[in-house]
Amino acid sequence: MPENHKPSSTTKSKAETAVTDSDNIENDVDSVDDKDVADVDIEIDDIDDDELNDSEADESLKEDIGKKINQLRLAKGYSQRKLAKLSGLTNTSISSIERNKVSPAVNTLKAILTVLGSDLTTFFSDEWKEPKARVIVTPKDLLELNEPNSKVSLKQVYNCSRTRNLGFLIETYQPNSSTEEKIAHEGEEIGTVIEGKIIIRIEDSTYLLNQGDSYVIDTIQPHTFINPTDSVTRIVSAHTPTTY
Question: The domain containing residue 219 runs over which residues?
């Protein structure tokens, strides 16, 4: 409170002081003219714009990291599990990075890029070229997600689009083969058996599908696909999210 507003204990009561202070506050408020208000608005607007621009730039960089890693991985023909294993990370970590749920530390990003045949300089270069999306995906363009010597082939239909929302697999199971034990990943999967038979084991439940049967599963539940026969089994499946 300004010094000239301090009451004298001998001349003013508390009630009189309160009234005087109230009048002075009202006068102070009235003295703020339109120019002062305009100046305050300009300063606030400038701060807000700067903060928004910084936030948008950070978010854009974060999105580029996830999308670029996803593109490099698919171009290499690696599944998320394979990339995780080779880079010393978990499948969940790779999935979260690709979907921009988390931003990787520099050492983590460097380890991932080394496995994918790239480096930090190239990754953040202005010369980075995004693959052009294809309309037609030929058999030679399919990406094999499993190891070359695996008895289970998982070929992904990948057209290099960064805006896709659906993954699609052409699966082939050699006689008496199976996927990894109890696979689990976020998302949903729908598929149809187009040849042979397949057993799907979801936690403690087992389901036998014949040719023409379809399935819909929540892939967060640990699951395994098994071909128990002496014949080849083929499946086509779609899954979300697009990462696998």
Answer: 139-240
